Amino acid sequence: MFWRAAIAFLALPGTVAYFAPLAWLLVTNRAILVHPLGLVCLVGGTLGLLWCVRDFFVQGRGTLAPWAPPESLVAVGLYRFTRNPMYLSVLSVLIGWALAFASLHLAAYAVLVGLGFHFRVLYGEEPWLQEHFGTTWSSYASQVPRWLGPRNEA
Description:
This protein has one domain. It is built from 5 helices and no strands. By secondary structure, it is mainly α. Helix 4 runs antiparallel to helix 5. The model has no long low-confidence stretch (mean pLDDT about 90).
């Protein structure tokens, strides 16, 4: 199971949050650190992402990948504050890249990825979670916001 979790991490958030931005910086020859404070977002997002992957593995007994999802609903750790801390962590990493390297292209990439995440959550993940976890999901979703802030959506 550990290797499936590691492969899922590298294949999914690894590609979106690390490999794609790094490739862009290298191809465009912009890999020069401009604003070191952007690294705070990058490191913070990375730590959040690793925490979420650990919770999926330990409490959920699965991975973040659709081909090996958690067996039980994960509602611990960062999942107590938002239903999507993994996506928010990836966005933090992307914002960190954009800020650290002063890249409007990476900022636009972060916006597009964020929109993609939102639609994936609405039309893919939440219906799946409702179907697989039923009232456990409904209760959790009624108490924890989809993103951040007050709980105001279904």
